[in-house]
């Protein structure tokens, strides 16, 4: 379970804040979360806010929560994002529209910054194509392995319609092998290997594998490359890897695949199919 889900259980579903300011929202969350004796060095910041047009008066607060969490005899440092919803004097960790069943935690996200559409992240399409699609993915995520190749193959057929941007987002806790695998892909991309992203989803490796050499062997077997441990530690590779994680954090990405179409989060992940291509 994600820390945010655990922390949410510490909070009441709503609390009186009397026309809360940002500072009051932070203070309230610190009081609720900080009341857990297993949490220390708690830091909370507001990263942004967004109105919910279909829910009058409600705002989504995009928060960063950083803390040390005691788990048994171990202390783990956590830096996670979370969304809270505020309406005047009420705050809630989850908001659901009872008429549409829309869960706003799944659908609301910050608008995608133009600065995130970089040349190194564009894997298909013309830079000035009218539709920009951003995909955050873990190549060992089972759903990603079905969804991403299909979506990319479709959009790559229409480079004048779709400009596709890809962000490596390995879920290290679930798929430790994905971290080395994505760094190998970045190294291969920088070395000029074609169709790296599509091929990445064909690599045959156990998602729980932690032996870097075994992971690199599987990658090289798939691509016919010779990526080694020094390659995945190059500063340029680490810089791109860290950039992708930073973008994911800014956009409140928590799972994969996460898709944005023309700057807006696409919870359905299929809006690209609704765009006219002819």
Describe this structure in words.
The chain is built from nine helices and nine strands. It has 278 residues and is an alpha+beta fold. The protein has two domains: 105 residues, Roll (Nuclear Transport Factor 2, Chain: A), CATH 3.10.450; 161 residues, Glutaredoxin. Strands 5-7-6-8-9 form a five-stranded mixed β-sheet. A four-stranded antiparallel β-sheet has the order 1-2-3-4, covered by helices on one side. α5 packs across α7 and α5 packs across α9. The longest helix is centred in the last third of the chain and has 16 residues. It is globular, with a radius of gyration of 20 Å.
Number of domains: 2
Radius of gyration, in angstroms, nearest whole number: 20 Å
Specify the overall morphology: globular
Instruction: Summarize the helix and strand pattern as letters.
Output: HHEEEEHEEHEHHHHHEE
Looking at the structure, the CATH topology of the largest domain is: Glutaredoxin
Q: Mean pLDDT, rounded to whole units?
A: 90
- Provide a count of the helices: 9
Intertermini distance: 44 Å
Poorly predicted ranges (pLDDT <50, ≥5 residues)?
A: 9-18
- Second rung of CATH, namely the architecture of the largest domain: 3-Layer(aba) Sandwich
CATH homologous superfamily caption of the largest domain: Glutaredoxin
Can you list the strand order of the major beta sheet?
A: 5-7-6-8-9
Class per helix and strand makeup: alpha+beta
Q: Strand percentage, roughly?
A: 15-25%
| DSSP helix fraction | 25-40%
How many strand elements?
9
Largest sheet: 5 strands, mixed
């Amino acid at each position: 379970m994600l820390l945010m889900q655990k922390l949410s259980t510490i909070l009441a579903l709503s609390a009186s804040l009397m026309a809360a300011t940002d500072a009051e929202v932070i203070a309230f969350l610190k009081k609720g979360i900080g009341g857990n004796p297993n949490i220390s060095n708690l830091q909370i910041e507001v990263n942004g806010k967004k109105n919910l047009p279909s829910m009058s008066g409600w705002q989504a607060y995009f928060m960063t929560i950083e803390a040390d969490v005691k788990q048994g005899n171990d202390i783990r440092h956590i830096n996670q994002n979370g969304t809270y919803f505020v309406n005047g004097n009420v705050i809630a960790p989850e908001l659901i529209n009872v008429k549409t069943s829309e869960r706003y935690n799944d659908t609301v996200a910050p608008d995608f910054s133009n600065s995130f559409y970089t040349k190194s992240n564009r894997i298909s399409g013309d830079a000035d194509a009218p539709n920009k699609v951003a995909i955050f993915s873990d190549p060992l995520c089972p759903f990603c392995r079905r969804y991403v190749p299909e979506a990319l193959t479709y959009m790559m057929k229409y480079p004048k319609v779709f400009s596709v941007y890809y962000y490596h987002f390995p879920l290290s806790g679930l798929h430790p092998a994905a971290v080395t695998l994505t760094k190998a892909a970045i190294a291969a991309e920088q070395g000029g290997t074609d169709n790296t992203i599509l091929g990445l989803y064909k690599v045959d490796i156990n998602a729980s594998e932690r032996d870097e050499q075994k992971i690199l062997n599987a990658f090289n077997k798939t691509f016919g490359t010779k990526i080694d441990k020094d390659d995945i530690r190059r500063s340029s590779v680490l810089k791109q890897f860290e950039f992708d994680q930073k973008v994911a954090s800014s956009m409140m990405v928590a799972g994969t695949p996460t898709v944005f179409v023309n700057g807006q989060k696409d919870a359905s992940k299929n809006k690209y199919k609704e765009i006219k291509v002819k």
